[in-house]
Amino acid sequence: MDALNALLDKDGYLRDHTAWDETLAVAIAARDGMALTPAHWEILHALRRFYARYELSPATRPLLKYLAQELGPDKATSLYVMQLFPGTPAKTIARLAGLPKPPNCI
Questions:
Q1: Is 90 in contact with 66 (CB distance < 8 Å)?
Q2: Where do the structural domains in the chain lie, given as residue ranges?
Q3: Is 13 labeled as catalytic in the residue annotation?
Q4: CATH number given to 2-96
């Protein structure tokens, strides 16, 4: 756990997004009491594609719009995403995907 904490900033975000891999995502999720399912992975990988293209972590509204384009409208509703990623979904997804905190999220 100390090795994981050394990779994260004070808010739990990965200091270097290029160090991310699925094993690291599993460790961060486990620390938060989450188990990642294929539905989680689908969204995590979509967010990483978004970041690779736009070089930013989106807030919830643009995230949902992108998920609708990438995964279809049934996987881009607030309810669906919040069930998978409780709390503030955009922040949680970015953290698990090893990306910076979305700028518009408190």
A1: no
A2: 2-96
A3: no
A4: 1.10.10.370
> What is the distance between the alpha carbons of residues 28 and 45, in angstroms, rounded to a whole number?
15
- List per-residue pLDDT tens for the chain, 106 residues long: 688 889 999 999 999 999 999 999 999 999 999 999 999 999 999 999 999 999 999 999 999 999 999 999 999 999 999 999 988 999 999 999 999 999 875 5
> Do 22 and 105 form a contact (C-beta atoms < 8 A)?
no
3-state SS assignment for residue 14: strand
Selecting among 5, 96, 105, 106, the annotated active-site residue is: 105
Rama region for 55: left / alpha / beta (φ>0; ψ in -120 to 50; rest):
left
Tokens of 100: 């910076």
